[in-house]
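Chain A, query sequence.
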Amino acid sequence: LITYNIFIMYKNFFKRIIDIICGLIALPFILILTFIVWLMILFDDRGPLFYAAPRMGKDGSIFRMYKYRSMKVNSPDIRNADGSTFNASNDPRVTKMGKFLRKTSIDEIPQLLNVLTGDMSLIGPRPSLTTTPYEKYDDIRKKRVSIRPGVTGYSQAYFRNSISQEAKFEKDCWYVDNITFANDVRIIIKTVLSVLKNDNIYN
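Chain A, predicted structure.
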């Protein structure tokens, strides 16, 4: 009973407090980085700095997820057979600057702003596309979006793009049932290591 209460308190209260504190600490660095990336994108293709896409949040709510733009303006939307986003080292849609942003995962940094607004968490399942309405979700998908989506998460940190979309959903549901501070710390550490090693960047 004590363990269950600790799980509930962390999941419903302390996790959000940590998100806010980390987001506020990171905010000055985000502003500096945004200026630097803006200059680099400006010299690359002079397009907009941000890419904002609709994503499904907690319990089916829709929000705009922010990233530094890594693709050419008006690039076509290409999907894999399982509906996941196509991602390859030779993707012609990605700009020269975009390849660097993706390889280092710097393009994901603006999502910390989504964390501050409460649409996302530092740790959670990756935000779902809005192509399928929440009402048509099966039990696995509904469970997956029963918590805030994350900048990184269990399947993202440990498997990135090396497993199928369905396998990612199952891993994310495991996380929903096992949200603890210790697991979140492990995920953060694994995320950093995966980025430094460039593990499983492409699907």
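Residues 67 and 109 are 7 Å apart (CA to CA). The beta strands are 50-56, 62-68, 121-123, 150-152.
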